[in-house]
Amino acid sequence: MTHPDELLAGFVDGSLSGADRTSVDAHLQTCARCRAEVELAGAGRAALRGLPDPETPDLAGTVRAEVGDLVAKEAAARAPRWYRYGGIAAAAVLAVAIAVSLPKVGTGPSEDRQAAATGEAAPTVGEADTLAALALELQQTDYATADVQALASEAARVAPSEVAGTGSAAMVPVGTAAQTARAQACVARAFPDFPGTPIRLISARFEGTPAYLAVVLEGPAPDQAADTTSVWVADHATCEPLSFTTTRI
Amino acid sequence: MTGPDDLLLRRAREGDHDAFGELVERHQTRIYAVCLRILADPEDARDAAQEAFITAFRKLGQFRGEAAFTTWLHRIAVNACYDALRRAKRRPMLHAIDPGDDDRALEPGPPSPDPADEIAGTIDVARALARVPENFRIVLVLADIEDLPYDEISRVLEVPVGTVKSRVHRGRIALAKALSGELPEGPRTSEEER
Questions:
Q1: How confident is the model over B78-137, as pLDDT tens digits?
Q2: Are B97 and B106 in contact (CB under 8 A)?
Q3: Minimum-distance CB partner of A44 among B24, B49, B172
Q4: What ipTM did this prediction achieve?
Q5: 8 Å CB contact between A137 and A172
Q6: Is B73 exposed, middle or buried (0-12, 13-18, 19+ CB in 10 A)?
Q7: What does CATH list as the number for B2-94+111-179?
Q8: What is the residue extent of each domain of chain B?
Q9: Residue B54 to residue A70, Cβ atoms within 8 A
């Protein structure tokens, strides 16, 4: 005999349709096993339905507090996460840059390789390419040392994601791709091997001299939260370092 | 019932913590009851229910409304209970008899029953339910305590409706047997444990 096992649950709780109910009724007339099961299942269901709603502790209060903490923590974590992504992106770009430059090896003019070897054309490629993602802000400002310090402090105050996201780029004219490329190469040449993730690139003047300024985030290690902002100032014409300032976040 | 939930959900997604707090207030009785009946321990149940709501808050952006909010919330709560059950198994035999002990051993079972069960005289039912294997117990809680239809239970647990129906039936029988003393006494563990 086949037993209508899938129908018995609905038979017991009354959710079965009319036709199915009739067929189960007919089966039960002849099947002692299913009759016994239905009786037990009915007792089990009745016991469960007799259970009262428990006394509920106040979860809402605790959850509200924890959710508040969570939101605060995530806001605090946003900076380091962005910073980490910056590092990963730079590494990825570096890999691409290597791949792209490979065909030149051995075929290109020798000065390419020489330049690469001396670090003139592409020092700290990763940083330079992170710079490439930024718009070069064209400013008329003539920065003094105090102003450069203010720039670093401002970056330290504002969440890095906001600086990167809105920057001043929306308000001030931005340079062409070529101008941006020159600026990034110049800054990278002035400050080779300096760690950090640039978040702004500015073309302005420093104490009267045309200059590039890069606002940079630094952490104790590449995979750790930024704890320092720096501003690198490079001479527009010679790409010599003009000034350097650093501020703890 | 989904009308006010929808509004609160929209506000919560827009970053209104208070709206999420209201959602918790609306659903905490149901979600806590599910956790208590599955875990049979008020403290574990409170932790699991809390964890479920916090998980729900974290995943709010993933809730697209293709399922009812209650279905989605029940799924999160059941998963929190599964986690709690796994943790309980790793704990030293907290509620179980030490097999080396003599018959003066401590009574097994939940350390403190829910006060409502004490008043209603349903402590035995709660304890019997705790002895039903967990996969059956969870389906029973959703069907006979939460009154969810089988197709919704199927969505909550992501198992076929036929499986739900068969587990409900087998679970009810197991509970009746546990109530009449036919299921062996023991810690509230699942059939997978041993």
A1: 999 999 999 887 765 544 444 444 444 444 444 577 877 777 677 789 999 999 999 999
A2: yes
A3: B172
A4: 0.81
A5: yes
A6: buried
A7: 1.10.1740.10
A8: 2-94+111-179
A9: yes
